[in-house]
Amino acid sequence: MIARTLATMALAGLALPAAAQERQSFRVDYSVSILGLNIARSTFTSTIGTNDFHLKGRLASSGIAKIFDSTEGTMDVKGALGDGLQADAYLLNYTSGDKKKRTEVAFSKGAVTKAENVPVRKINPKRWVPLDKSELTSVTDPISASMVRASSLEDVCNRTVRVFDGEMRADLKLSLVGVKPAETTGFSGDAVTCRAQFVPIGGYKISKSMDFMKNKSKIVMSFAQLGTTGVYAPIHVTATTEIGTLT
Length: 247
Hints:
Elements: H1 2-7, E1 11-14, E2 24-34, E3 37-48, E4 52-61, H2 64-68, E5 71-81, E6 85-96, E7 99-108, E8 111-118, E9 128-129, H3 142-145, E10 148-149, E11 159-164, E12 169-184, E13 187-202, E14 204-205, H4 208-215, E15 219-225, E16 231-241, E17 244-246
Antiparallel strand pairs: 1-2, 2-3, 3-4, 4-5, 5-6, 6-7, 7-8, 9-14, 10-16, 11-12, 12-13, 13-15, 15-16, 16-17
């Protein structure tokens, strides 16, 4: 669950906007690695209008990870633009080995109105942190949460992003590191770097890996603006885990 959430934030490449100011389209390519070994690739397309957005993506395991666990998935998010990106509907379909899974979440003004996981996960109550319904307000999905609407680069950090992925609720507390030039495929310009503290709230299994992410992991995220939308997306992310650094 942690890897799935973080992987959606590990963007590595921005394409230039395709059309007019009112509605701009982008393609974003993911490359996710750990200990320098590629484990996943993905391509996302996003359309950002004046008051709305639509994100679609495909994710697949690659490299050494494909030997142990072949995973493929699609994601689709639609929502409105306000102070940030607020999802209305989030849909994730993926296949891991011979197992098919689906997660569907509906939101209304930041509050979760529906959360469905198929098949339903079997949990051990003794090792499970429950999630109170009061924590399901002012939240958004992992994809929308990885993109920040701000008035400037300096305004991207110093905020708390409240994430719900259909099962786990977590906060990502961002703090400013600095602004400097950056370059990646399709982008060259200034980017802002934030430190991020991962704070699990509920809906997760108690484990050493979760404890590590909460208390020891060092997460750094660099953001750049998508065209002239005022929306900033990560162009580079690193997160230390128990087995090495995820990039």
